[in-house]
Amino acid sequence: MKGLGERLRTRARQLGWSDSEVARRAGLVQTRYANYVIDKHEPDLTTLLRICAVLEMPVGEVLGQSASVPRDEAELRTRIDAALTLLDGDSLKTVATVLEGLVARQNAALRAT
Question: Where is the HTH cro/C1-type domain (predicted)?
């Protein structure tokens, strides 16, 4: 995902943190995080969410999406958030796996263009 590393590094610098500090706060080995910053590898969804939480940055922004979300998408996100609060641990694992698959498919389609 081209540009991901630059967005990660830019946000870390805004917070006054080094790559090592972000990796530590996210519970990652520094070399693993460095691979994301240099766009050598892409994080899985769970790791991406941890990094976003540490950097206090929306996932969409990290992925390079516009900050504005169309109204219908915002409503869908609200519905999804509400449904997630009602799921048990096993169901949440299933949802996470499905979401990771969707993100991988979307990323593959973006790379193909």
Answer: 8-62
